[in-house]
Write a structure and sequence with these properties.
Catalytic activity: D-alanyl-D-alanine + UDP-N-acetyl-alpha-D-muramoyl-L-alanyl-gamma-D-glutamyl-meso-2,6-diaminopimelate + ATP = UDP-N-acetyl-alpha-D-muramoyl-L-alanyl-gamma-D-glutamyl-meso-2,6-diaminopimeloyl-D-alanyl-D-alanine + ADP + phosphate + H(+)
Strand content: 15-25%
Main location: cytoplasm
Strand order of the largest sheet: 15-16-22-17-18-21-20-19
Number of helices: 18
Protein name: UDP-N-acetylmuramoyl-tripeptide--D-alanyl-D-alanine ligase
Family: Belongs to the MurCDEF family. MurF subfamily.
Largest sheet: 8 strands, mixed
Number of strands: 22
Shape: globular
Oligomer: single chain
Helix content: 25-40%
Pathway: Cell wall biogenesis; peptidoglycan biosynthesis
């Protein structure tokens, strides 16, 4: 086409021809605007900035096409439209007259079109070494640790937060620039086929699996199926690619079976003199050099081992690895230790049976704390038919632990208490069920509504003392950090 690009070709993330080819799109404009350029890609109209490509997605509850007017008002220069929608409503006549410089591209499926143009964009950087990370838990932590390590030697780009989904990863890759040497991208899933889709977008040179656990088992049905899906991160591998697989995982042999490329197993055999520092992290020696991971718990330590194994393959020395680890800090809701008169372990960004077990075990074994231990556990979601038994196991575990108080929040936790036949002694003045048994005092809040959170706050006002240590652990939607806000917002502990 003769359409001009930006004033400088490199200013546009892709050319019009590249977009039409990758997205299998058709230009809807009758009169082609003179200049084609977009410098960002979003699926949320609230995030559109001038010069952006807006991709409206079709969901079960919302149709992104509804927000095209808002995207145009904010300065979108390219808009994707599902072909059927373009036929049903004349987008060209509605919008082109008012926005004659905007390109409207009709595609069969806007999600797949987004993925395909993202793949096209990634291919523009053949020198970039791409690392994909997946697993049932620990993806974000592994990515963050590895980014700190590799940044000691390389220019690194990674997806922010946990933008690892069918839309999150494609959107993330548009942050790649020519000067980046290594790209680290986590890949999550909550349905069959998603890892394969993401691998086809990124085409990773290096693939890392953190573990095979029970996250999303309610959707995928079994750990065998989860392992099969996670293994798809290696689906585009050839002899030059490298796979990192946890040596201690029960699925290690399956994950490595018939895999093209080099397989590297990683784990505790790599290090020596491992010692827990409690809330301060884990101390260990690697290649004779003592170092510390400043994140608490075994789960984070295993994620660290994955990062070290990859960093070694990239040529980092033990000294560089030590320096990189010293710069690691916890992300929001992920093993955050918030110190004060009451110490809060805020680990409520996500939860599944494996990570919940690790958190409760770590909390029970935690030493060198001056006060009492109080565990606040919320529902774990997306467990399907496994949910009741998984929650009963955790409730049984924590109510037989060394903690003094247990606050359980959510319908699943409440059902688990009843399923274990823990006798209730009636309701407190706050309307909260109190379950009595030997060991911790157990309080159960029926759901995660604000009303129940307020009742939990009132209870904490009565039982908290200076020096106590509080663990918060639940799936993200439970938003247990509301209790952190309450505890930090005023003096709610006794002297």
């Amino acid at each position: 086409m003769s359409t001009k690009q930006c004033f400088k070709q490199e200013e546009s993330l892709l050319s019009l021809d590249e977009v039409l080819l990758a997205a299998k799109g058709v230009l809807l404009n009758k009169e082609v605007p003179e200049t084609f350029c977009f410098t960002s890609v979003v699926t949320d109209s609230r995030q559109v900035s001038a010069g952006g490509l807006f991709v409206p997605l079709l969901g079960e509850k919302q149709d992104g096409h509804t927000y095209i007017p808002q995207a145009l008002e904010k300065g979108a220069t390219v808009v994707f439209v599902v072909k059927d929608k373009a036929k049903e409503t004349d987008y060209v006549s509605l919008f082109v007259k008012r926005y004659p410089t905007v390109f409207f591209v009709a595609v069969e499926n806007t999600l797949y079109a987004l993925q395909h143009i993202a793949c096209m964009y990634v291919k523009k950087f053949p020198k970039l070494i791409k690392i994909g990370i997946t697993g049932s838990s620990g993806k974000t932590t592994t990515k963050e640790i590895l980014a700190h390590l590799l940044s000691e030697k390389y220019s690194v780009i990674m997806n922010q937060g946990n933008l690892n989904s069918e839309t999150g990863l494609p959107l993330s890759v548009f942050a790649i620039r020519e000067y980046h040497e290594v790209g680290i991208f986590e890949m999550g899933m909550n349905r069959r086929g998603e890892i394969s889709e993401l691998a086809s977008v990124l085409l990773p040179d290096v693939g890392v699996i953190t573990n095979i656990g029970t996250a999303h088992i309610g959707i995928l049905g079994s750990k065998d199926t989860i392992a099969e899906e996670k293994k798809e991160i290696f689906s585009n591998f050839c002899e030059k690619n490298v796979a990192f697989i946890p040596e201690q995982d029960a699925y290690r042999n399956f994950l490595a079976q018939e895999l093209k490329g080099t397989v590297i197993f990683y784990g505790e055999s790599m290090v020596q003199h491992v010692r827990s520092l409690g809330l301060k992290g884990t101390a260990f020696s690697y290649e004779g050099i003592p170092m510390v991971l400043p994140l608490p718990g075994k789960g984070n330590f295993y994620d660290c081992l994955a990062g070290i194994a990859v960093a070694k393959s990239f040529g980092l020395t033990a000294s560089e690895i030590k320096t990189g680890l010293s710069k690691v800090t916890p992300l929001f809701g992920r093993s955050q230790v918030i110190e004060g008169a009451v110490t809060i372990i805020q680990d409520c960004y996500n939860a599944n049976p494996d990570s919940m077990d690790q958190a409760v075990t770590f909390f029970q074994e935690l030493e060198d704390v001056s006060g009492r231990k109080i565990a606040i556990l919320g529902d774990m979601l997306e467990l399907g038919s496994e949910s009741l038994e998984a929650h009963k196991k955790i409730v049984g575990q924590v109510t037989h632990s060394s903690v003094e108080y247990v606050l359980l929040v959510g319908n699943c936790m409440w059902e688990a208490c009843n399923g274990l036949h823990i006798a209730t002694c009636g309701a407190s003045e706050n309307g909260v069920d109190i379950f009595e048994k030997k060991g911790p005092k157990v309080f159960c809040f029926a759901d995660g509504s604000q009303d129940q959170i307020d009742k939990a706050t009132q209870l904490l006002r009565k039982i908290l003392k200076k020096g106590d240590v509080v663990l918060l652990k639940a799936s993200r939607s439970m938003a247990l950090e509301r209790l952190t806000t309450a505890m930090q917002g005023g003096k709610i502990w006794a002297e």
